[in-house]
TrEMBL record:
Occurrences of domain N-acetyltransferase (ranges): 125-276
Organism the protein comes from: Methanococcus aeolicus (strain ATCC BAA-1280 / DSM 17508 / OCM 812 / Nankai-3)
Superkingdom of origin: Archaea
Official protein name in the record: GCN5-related N-acetyltransferase
CDD domains linked: NAT_SF (cd04301)
Coiled-coil spans in chain: none
Annotated transmembrane regions: none
GO molecular function, one term: N-acetyltransferase activity
Length: 276
C-alpha cells in the first residue's frame, strides 16, 4: 500500500510499489528526529531505498547519514538549489541494471539541436488544459499506457483531487478523444514545477505530441509566474529524454532503480530549465 503522511512536519510517501520512502518536503527544524525514524521505517517495512529532495545547504547532514547525491535542480528553492539524494539498504538496489543503455540514450538526447518552436498541430487535433469532466478519460489513457505507475493516476478521483490542489493537466485530443496527456505539478511556495505524467497512446507515438504538450505547459507556467521547470524522466525512454533536451533542459543525474513504471523499477533522469 502507498500513502502520503506527515512525520515531524515533513511530507513523506511510503511506497510498497516503489519499495522506498520518498521525502517530498523537508521540515528543516526536525532533521535530527526525522532521519533516524526514516531508517527505522525503512527497515521495518523492508524497503531498500530512501529518496529525498532537500536544499543544498543541508547536503552535508544527509551525507553524514550515508545519503548520496544523484541529481540536482539549480534554483529549485527561492534561496537555494535542490539536491536529489538517496540512501540504499540493498547492494542490488544501488546498481543500475542497464548502465550502457542509459548512457546511450543520454548521448543521443544531449546531441540533439535545441529548438525554439514547433509546428502547429493538424486541424483535427486540439491541445489545452483539461478539467474534472476529463478525469475519467485521462485515467483510462494512463491505464492503457502504463502497466504500473508510482502514483494512482488510474483513479479519476485521484486526478480530480490533484486538479483541486496544485496540478494542471494538459491533453491533446484527436477528433474529441484524448490521445496524449501530461501534467504540471506546481510548487507555489518556490514557484517551480515538475513536468510529469506524460503519456501518448501507442498508435499516436512518433508525432512529437509530447513536445507539443511541453511547449504548451511551459507557456502556461510562465504565465503563472513559475521560475523553474524540471522533470524526472524514464532513463531508457529515448523519446522523452530527447523531448526535454531539445527544449533546452539540462541533465543533472540519474536516480538509480527509483520508480516502478510498467511493472519494474527503472532508472530516472533529472532534467531542469529556468523558465524566466
Amino acid at each position: 500500500m502507498d500513502k502520503i503522511t506527515n512525520i515531524h512536519g515533513s511530507v513523506i510517501q511510503l511506497s510498497d510499489l516503489n519499495d522506498r520512502i520518498y521525502l517530498m518536503k523537508l521540515n528543516q527544524d526536525k532533521i535530527g528526529e526525522l532521519l533516524p525514524q526514516l531508517n527505522e521505517i525503512c527497515v521495518k517495512r523492508e524497503y531498500t531505498k530512501i529518496f529525498a529532495v532537500i536544499p543544498n545547504n543541508l547536503k552535508k547532514e544527509f551525507e553524514n547519514e550515508c545519503y548520496v547525491e544523484e541529481a540536482f535542480v539549480k534554483g529549485y528553492f527561492l534561496d537555494d538549489d535542490a539536491i536529489f539524494m538517496s540512501k540504499y539498504f540493498s547492494k542490488d538496489r544501488k546498481i543500475s541494471r542497464f548502465p550502457e543503455k542509459v548512457k546511450e540514450v543520454l548521448n543521443v538526447a544531449e546531441n540533439k539541436r535545441p529548438i525554439k518552436s514547433c509546428s502547429n498541430l493538424d486541424s483535427n487535433f486540439s491541445l489545452g488544459v483539461v478539467n474534472k469532466d476529463d478525469a475519467g478519460e485521462l485515467a483510462n489513457l494512463y491505464k492503457k499506457v502504463f502497466e504500473t505507475y508510482p502514483f494512482p493516476i488510474y483513479d479519476p478521483n485521484y486526478i480530480i483531487k490533484m486538479m483541486n490542489s496544485n496540478v494542471v493537466y494538459f491533453a491533446i485530443k484527436h477528433s474529441g478523444k484524448i490521445v496524449a496527456a501530461a501534467s504540471s505539478e506546481i510548487n507555489k511556495e518556490n514557484r517551480c514545477v515538475e513536468m510529469t505524467d506524460f503519456a501518448v497512446l501507442p498508435e499516436y507515438q512518433g508525432h512529437r505530441l509530447a513536445q507539443q504538450l511541453l511547449f504548451a505547459m511551459e507557456d502556461e507556467m510562465r504565465n503563472k509566474g513559475i521560475r523553474v521547470a524540471y522533470t524526472i524522466a524514464r532513463a531508457l525512454s529515448l523519446g522523452m529524454n530527447i523531448t526535454f533536451a531539445k527544449l533546452g533542459y539540462k541533465y543533472t543525474g540519474t536516480l538509480v532503480n527509483n520508480t516502478n513504471i510498467c511493472g519494474k523499477l527503472e532508472d530516472m533522469n533529472v532534467w531542469y530549465k529556468h523558465l524566466k
